[in-house]
Structures are given as structure tokens and as C-alpha cells.
From TrEMBL:
Native source organism of the sequence: Halomonas aestuarii
Family membership noted in the UniProt record: Belongs to the SOS response-associated peptidase family.
Protein name as annotated: Abasic site processing protein
GO biological process: protein-DNA covalent cross-linking repair; proteolysis
InterPro entries to which the protein is assigned, alphabetical: SRAP, SRAP-like
Keyword Hydrolase in record: yes
Keyword Lyase: yes
EC number: 3.4.-.-
Length: 220
């Protein structure tokens, strides 16, 4: 799953790494402990013919047509996102990217859970595949897609966020690309060999804790 991540790269670095025309780009405040149920930075087309923008979405997906007590998941699995009644409309028409510098996962060790930070070996930003929908309040809410863990990520957990490679960003964001199989043929995950991880402080367990020290390696 993906339940916590970090985004501390400044807006110019994220925009440069994207390599796509960006109409608007809100300023990114460094966050080392991004938790569900908060506003997070996303890249999306607000409408079919609207330019690409970097703005905020609520990390919790509940479309405006859902019942008041409908679930508000933070993740959607790649196995079901295109076919589930709850997600398939967003998968077809409202895909987004969640930029991140890395994410956290917890490894059971001797009856405790040791947090690890997972990121690219070259420390460049990651692009997490997401879907969004307009919430009842009219603002966007999103979920991050997850897939079976690959490579070193499988050492920590059995699932991981769907991290896209650079060639997949434009087709993933294209609102006119709606066919399930066409999308799957055009979109590829980042090679597992480009990821790395290390153990970090249990301070990350508390969502109120912040700071660059949260991603510093600690003895395992």
C-alpha cells in the first residue's frame, strides 16, 4: 500500500523533471511526513481540454455522487481500478500524478515495525499514479494506485505505489485516452532496479512529526 510519503523537492525541480508543459504550478512546501486526510500536491487536467496544472487534492477519494457514508479510500489497486464501479470513471477520465521524493513502508522485525524510506537511487522525484474525482464540496479528492511490490520494495511490503517511468507521464495524464487496454499498453512502471531503501527513525510513525531527519538512515 501507500499510506505515507515525502515531497521536499522545490517546485522548479519537480516542473523540470516532469518535462511536460505546465500551465500553473503552486509552490511546494517541503513535507517529509505526508499523511492521508490532508491536501497533497497533484498534477492533473481539471477538464478534458484544460491545461495541465499543479494544484492540491484531498488525499481520500470519495466522488460527489457517492453516498455520504461511502468509503474514502486513499489507495486503489491496479487489479480493480479499471473495473470497479467506484473507480472506473476516474480511471478513464480523471487520472493524475502525485509527485513524491519517496514513500515509507514498515517492516516487521522482532515483534516491532521498522519504518523504511523507499526512493529512486538517483534521488530524483517519483511519479505516483493516481485518480481523482470531484468531492461533494466541489474540490478534488484522490487515491494513489498500488501494485504488487517489485524488486527491493518487496523486501519491505507485498505492495507498493504504482511508480511510473518518464515515458508514461503524458499518456497517463491525457484525459482523451480512455480505453482501458490502450492506457495499459501506453503506461509502464519505473524499473524496479532504480529503487532503493533504508531504515529510518520511528519518529515518522507520528503524523505530527516533520523534518529532514525523518529520512536519515538509522541502524537496522
Amino acid at each position: 500500500m501507500c499510506g505515507r510519503f515525502a515531497l521536499y523537492s522545490p517546485t522548479p525541480k519537480v516542473s523540470e523533471a516532469l518535462r511536460l508543459p505546465l500551465e500553473e504550478a503552486g509552490e511546494i512546501a517541503p513535507r517529509y511526513n505526508v499523511a492521508p486526510g490532508t491536501w497533497i500536491t497533484v498534477l492533473r487536467h481539471p477538464g478534458d481540454d484544460a491545461p495541465l496544472v499543479m494544484d492540491e487534492a484531498w488525499w481520500g477519494y470519495r466522488p460527489h455522487w457517492a453516498r455520504e457514508k461511502a468509503p474514502e479510500p486513499i489507495n486503489a489497486t491496479v487489479e480493480k481500478v479499471a473495473t470497479s464501479n467506484y473507480f472506473r470513471g476516474a480511471f478513464a477520465h480523471h487520472r493524475c500524478l502525485v509527485p513524491a521524493d519517496g514513500w515509507y513502508e514498515w517492516l516487521p522485525v522482532d515483534g516491532r515495525k521498522q519504518p523504511h524510506f523507499l526512493c529512486r537511487e538517483d534521488r530524483e522525484p517519483l511519479w505516483l499514479a493516481g485518480i481523482w474525482s470531484e468531492r461533494p464540496d466541489g474540490r478534488p479528492g484522490c487515491a494513489i494506485l498500488t501494485e504488487p511490490a517489485r524488486g527491493v520494495a518487496s523486501e519491505i511490503h507485498d505492495r507498493m505505489p504504482l511508480v511510473l517511468d518518464e515515458t508514461s507521464l503524458e499518456p497517463w495524464l491525457d484525459p482523451h485516452l480512455t480505453d482501458r487496454e490502450t492506457i495499459r499498453g501506453a503506461v509502464h512502471h519505473l524499473a524496479a532496479g532504480r529503487l532503493t531503501h533504508w531504515p529510518v527513525s520511528t519518529r515518522v510513525n507520528r503524523t505530527g512529526n516533520e523534518g529532514a531527519d525523518l529520512i536519515e538512515p538509522v541502524p537496522s
